[in-house]
Design goal:
Layout: E1 7-16, H1 21-27, E2 32-38, E3 42-49, E4 52-59, E5 103-110, H2 114-123, E6 128-137, E7 140-148, E8 155-160, E9 173-174, E10 190-197, H3 203-214, E11 216-219, E12 231-235, E13 238-247, E14 261-267, H4 275-283, E15 287-294, H5 298-307, H6 325-331, H7 336-342, E16 345-348, E17 364-369, E18 380-387, H8 394-411
Parallel strand pairs: 1-4, 5-8, 10-14, 15-18
Antiparallel strand pairs: 1-5, 2-3, 2-9, 3-4, 6-7, 7-8, 10-15, 11-13, 12-13, 13-14, 16-17, 17-18
Length: 412
């Protein structure tokens, strides 16, 4: 039996000290710093926005020699694993990935019984980077372990915090001020999805590993998706394969919920530059390319974040003038000029009626990507609002792809 996951806890970054990530998350993205742990050699800062929690790990002082790991597209996909990170006393609840660039490298889950989960994982051939470990302070105790994913430098911390009543986790102290006053206009409620950039040809092995170890199930990205090959988009300047999975739910898309989905992105063998391959090269292998933040009001959130200094990629110039696009936006009860002003994309999922149906009958989603937030241009955030649509629309996928590709081309 696969290991059972209860819920997603947080996503962890490992960055050099002084990168400005924390100040950007607080000052621009309006995350709230609520817990911290500082030692002589490292600083760990927990930030929250709704139920979305980021843990930023910074090594202070001189960093240890980084393992360089250039991506080689000629080598077998899953053979390109960076050296396994190691546990040290500086970083609790994680391994130190010793990665040469800033990276989002840990997706942490809560579980009910860490020792039992650990045994199941080991029985299924999933080695533990950190065995079950207890950490205690005045707020109680937490048990955790860490397993290494089959994808790049990603690891998964599994923890049981049912016996803990502190601000975050044992070893951390409360930090920051409790937000007061009116509702934050830049609200985000939870992580909608996490996208892995994967080497070409690796998706099936990744799906099999997550299903075997954690019981993940296939999630249909779009109803035109091929069950064997995933959702493939080809065209001028686009060559992309998307496949999705999630834990503990069925494989057919239904109404949107708070469960985070995992999307596997592979490039297709097409001429020209490709942003997935660019990620693999700059990051030094597979990893987390972007994280989608769910919002119930994407227009207000995008406006507030832009005013705070967040920079978004611009949609293709012709997007809003495409045949039927303005009509589609109006059919959703929205103003095309307003979405155009903020660079927000809208797409339906093919369900719930056509363009003549009422906004309440149609299912659609709205999305916008930020510019990369690391110097290496290997990670960005997405805002997404779903109105009934659980998957992803082809029009938005194409437009978002072209938006990011155009931005990357300008940087060269």
């Amino acid at each position: 039996m696969a290991a059972s996951l209860s819920r997603l806890s947080h996503i962890a970054f490992h960055v050099p000290a002084g990168t400005g990530l924390v100040s950007d998350l607080v000052g621009k993205f309006r995350f709230h710093l609520f817990a911290e742990r500082v030692t002589a050699g490292a600083r760990q800062l927990a930030l929250r926005k709704g139920a979305a929690v980021f843990l930023v790990n910074e090594r202070l002082g001189e960093p240890p020699p980084a393992h360089t790991f250039p991506f080689d597209p000629t080598r077998p996909a899953l053979a390109q694993q960076p050296p396994l990170g190691h546990s040290d006393k500086e970083f609790l609840y994680d391994v130190n990935p010793s990665h040469p660039v800033s990276t989002a490298s840990n997706v942490c889950f809560e579980v009910q019984d860490v020792p039992s989960v650990s045994r199941r994982l080991q029985e299924r051939g999933c080695p533990l980077a950190i065995p079950p470990t207890d950490v205690t302070d005045d707020g109680g105790s937490v048990t955790y372990c860490v397993v290494r994913s089959v994808v790049g430098n990603i690891s998964h911390t599994l923890l049981d915090r049912s016996r803990y009543r502190g601000a975050f986790l044992p070893g951390f102290r409360a930090a920051g001020d409790v937000p007061e006053g009116p509702r934050d206009p830049a609200e985000a409620t939870h992580f909608d999805h996490i996208t892995y950039a994967c080497p070409r040809g690796s998706t099936r092995a990744v799906l099999d590993w997550y299903q075997h170890c954690f019981g993940f199930q296939r999630f249909i990205v779009n109803r035109q998706e091929d069950a064997a090959e995933g959702y493939r988009i080809r065209g001028r300047g686009v060559g992309l394969q998307l496949t999705a999975m999630r834990y503990g739910k069925g494989s057919e898309p239904g109404l949107a919920d708070d469960d985070c989905k995992f999307v596997l992105a592979e490039s297709l063998l097409e001429p020209g530059k490709n942003q997935v391959d660019a990620f693999l090269e700059q990051h030094g292998g597979a990893g987390i390319q972007h994280v989608g933040l769910y919002t119930t009001d994407i227009v207000s959130t995008a406006r507030a974040l832009a005013q705070a200094g967040v920079r978004f990629v611009e949609p293709p110039p012709a997007y809003y003038s495409e045949a039927g696009k303005a009509e589609e936006i109006r059919a959703a009860g929205l103003d095309p000029r307003l979405l155009s002003q903020h660079g927000i994309l809208l797409d339906g999922d093919g369900e719930g009626g056509g363009r003549g149906s009422s906004p309440h009958q149609r299912r659609y989603l709205m999305q916008i990507f930020t510019q990369p937030i690391f110097p290496e241009e290997t990670f960005f955030l997405e805002l997404i609002e779903r109105r009934g649509a659980a998957g992803f629309g082809e029009g938005n996928i194409r437009a978002l792809w072209k938006s990011v590709q155009a931005y990357l081309d300008k940087q060269e």
